[in-house]
Amino acid sequence: MAGTTAQPSSRPRSWWGWGYADAHPDDAECAAMGALLPGTLPRPLPVPRVRDLRIGGPAAEPPASLAHLVTADPAVRAAHAMGKAYRDVVRALRGRPGRIPDLVAHPAGEQDVVDLLDWAGSRRIAVVPYGGGSSVTGGVEYRGDAHDAVLSLDLTRMDRVLEVDAHGRAARIQAGTPGPALEQQLRPHGLTLRHFPQSFEFSTLGGWIATRAGGHYATGRTHIDDSVQSLRVVTPAGVSASWRLPASGAGPSPDRLFIGSEGTLGVITEAWVRLVERPRHKASASLAFTGFRAALDAVRAIAQSDLRPANCRLLDAGEAALSGVRADGSAVLVLGFESADAPVDGLLDRAVALARSHGGRPGAGGGGRAGDAAVAAWRSAFLRMPYLRDGLARMGAVAETFETAATWDAVPALIDAVRSEVGAAAAKVTGYPATVNCRLTHVYPDGAAPYFTVLAAGRPGDEAALWDDLKAVADEVLHRHRATITHHHAVGRDHRPGYDLQRPEPFALALRAVKSALDPRGILNPGVLVD
Amino acid sequence: MAGTTAQPSSRPRSWWGWGYADAHPDDAECAAMGALLPGTLPRPLPVPRVRDLRIGGPAAEPPASLAHLVTADPAVRAAHAMGKAYRDVVRALRGRPGRIPDLVAHPAGEQDVVDLLDWAGSRRIAVVPYGGGSSVTGGVEYRGDAHDAVLSLDLTRMDRVLEVDAHGRAARIQAGTPGPALEQQLRPHGLTLRHFPQSFEFSTLGGWIATRAGGHYATGRTHIDDSVQSLRVVTPAGVSASWRLPASGAGPSPDRLFIGSEGTLGVITEAWVRLVERPRHKASASLAFTGFRAALDAVRAIAQSDLRPANCRLLDAGEAALSGVRADGSAVLVLGFESADAPVDGLLDRAVALARSHGGRPGAGGGGRAGDAAVAAWRSAFLRMPYLRDGLARMGAVAETFETAATWDAVPALIDAVRSEVGAAAAKVTGYPATVNCRLTHVYPDGAAPYFTVLAAGRPGDEAALWDDLKAVADEVLHRHRATITHHHAVGRDHRPGYDLQRPEPFALALRAVKSALDPRGILNPGVLVD
């Protein structure tokens, strides 16, 4: 992916929706999509404009020593007001975005971050760390009014690979480096971080680490957690710098406390991360299954083998149809193997044989193995999906996703319950039939990560509240099945109620204690994870 | 290993040294070993007897409701006074063991643990959680006098596999279950935890988790950390129970805070752990190398491939000779592969080819592949080693090990520096030549875990202080090379100075805050990790 993509800076980003402004579906495309869903608007809501927002002057001014790092430009502030969840998009479409930050800072290095936190701490200014801004869980906005002002701390000027240890397969990288720039700088070394979340083009290393992001690969290092070798984190109580170590047993892992802390305990400024050689051998295939349960069994068998596929993505019939992979009611399993060392055809053969033994029919998308059309169709739909969601939102539709993970014993009933209960709730509140599709994005020997897509006519004018209602139903189902509130999208503000129910109470106590110790004035990303 | 070993309870354990009392070398064997090391004693120190210790009455008495769980028997108390480091053995041999706990409790379940902690908290009684007692870092003794009494909390009555989820490859297991009993209960299900530390016969699941123990396998799940699916932990502030999840991105991992907390934040009572199928296919081989640097390069190449050997253990020439593998000055690499699914000969061939390309000569120990004598010799020496250490200690010799991990760029100079500086220090303080051997026990794409053995004549009567002097030299070398104070033996009390230098200061702040929140009276394993 890297290197083939233009640098984000060279192409205007959408302030209100996903990705690049010029990649959004136009009005005609939106209308065509809307026509497929009964109950949507007759024509798309207009693309919202920053100049229509009432953005007042900032409630704080930086000291002269920091003025060069800080802007109060309304367009920049509006673009930093929210992440990119459906709920953010519809709030922007309705001209009611979240609280616009007073200021946006672009630190150039760690000392700038230290200075900005010092100043914010002295002035009761909330600091919201901001990487690529691709949060889909309300992770980068401010809610409430307990602070005198809000500063969005945008790390993207810190976008360099500072050091590469090719001998030891690791690199020291600044936290604000977006995916494409990161891979581009590693490419000359023949190395890759191999972390490709759906947000890859727009999200940053620091954001991945702060949110325990999940990459594209189905097994192995699914989360960024395992790629972190060491961290530098600026906390209001000092800079935390862990040692570069391949492994350690010295007390609870310091890095694991900051990984997933979502900007509440400190600002990650750089990390040494583990790299791998760029793969030279690849093979992929797809299989169709008549029944979803049989496909689940096949996936479990593969996940419990020693095959470790790079991809093992199971689409249910609805998801396969929606992404243009296959529309005959079959579930589709997309398998892929990669290696820098040796051909992987033998591994693919074994995985395909396992899937066939559970009723899988090879060549789900037609075509031969390496160029299986199902694989290509899926990849293209995958990258286009967030843009289409925004188009559907403009048609007044509900189009959102959420993801989870559970042990294998819980997975089938969980998926059934989400489909039926969230589907029924959506039909009830919108008055139209709703679609709830499922795919498995990551698989483990002991469980899997189901990812759900909800598509329904909306309740025009009331989109955010409608989603909140559906989400409450979804959260209840997840909780009842002991499925995590998030496998790789982070908690943010939107998942907070589910998170509070999930985490052990003594751990909540511990986290509050850590928060008080490291951020005694409570300026860092208030409302996320702890109060 | 499991199932072929007698249950620990059926055979008397040594109160002062490693393992079973009847497995220790006798006086003649000790003398023969001592004769190989100039400067040792003419005859072994006598085996120490509990009745020669002055053990007073306990400083506290349990309430009637807990009396059935608690003993003040002097032999039991003496056996719980210390772990099994060289420093512990020599203190026992000299009749000066660590502080004898006043009482030893054997809770039968979680509620007993809750009740015992409640009582201890109300009476300023220090609680030292105790599993198999195999700590080699001073993790299970009490030092200081800030408490009114000391209670050793022995979890080994909680030794059952409570539930097996064969479908999802996991089991719920009580924390006090020792390795052999754990594997014996899993065997009928065809499953194994596959965690075989050198202490396997005598250590427990809870101890492994509390100390981030490392198993026998060189790659993959080297540490118990990755096998933990969920935990139950009794803290003075309440019981922490995390959900069974294959993976999650919901905030910092609650389990990772307790994994490695060494009994300072709570008492682990049970865990769901991830299992694997018992391997059906195995292959192993060994290779000799003329130079250690070439062998390091071979190991790095294998660790950075996608081969993932079960064993990849590199012995330097001294270690190869000491363990009876090969005595011609060659370094020896022992390679092993395992799978439950498919033959592994192809993987072994590729690994051997990689090693040969770096100068490795196959068949280091003579003999054919599967039955390579070097592999067998190593395994047998590995399990016998702690007993021989105790025999050497009886001869007044210094015989101890320590281990670490570092990135590949640091490994060669680190090993050279430990060999020369610790060797020189040992020679200087004892007046005799010293041996410092090295092996790599675990390997990673980004580094390795060197394990050192120090053998020298002692300074009779002053063994513990002598070791403390050598350890200070070792710690300084590790710190200078940014090598962790422990890769898999935990911090305990002995590694505390090195740990304090290693951990980031904001993390120390965070850990102290967590300690205050979860253990406000400071009764849990005082002095370990935090003050």
From TrEMBL, chains A, B:
Superkingdom classification of source: Bacteria
Keywords recorded for this protein, A-Z: FAD, Flavoprotein
Gene3D superfamilies the record matches: 3.30.465.10, 3.30.70.3450, FAD-linked oxidase, cap domain/gating helix
FAD-binding PCMH-type domain segment(s): 96-278
Family: Belongs to the FAD-binding oxidoreductase/transferase type 4 family.
PANTHER family per UniProt: ALKYLDIHYDROXYACETONEPHOSPHATE SYNTHASE, PEROXISOMAL
Record-given protein name: FAD-binding oxidoreductase
UniProt source species: Streptomyces toxytricini (Actinomyces toxytricini)
